[in-house]
Amino acid sequence: MKIVIEDYISINAGTYHNASSYQVALDPEFTQIIDETHKDTVNVKSWHTPLPIIGDTMHHYSNLTKVYGRVKVWINDTESEWYNTPVVNQQDQTIIVTEEGKEPVTYNSLELKMNMS
Question: How, if at all, do strands 78-79 and 68-75 pair?
Answer without folding.
Answer: antiparallel
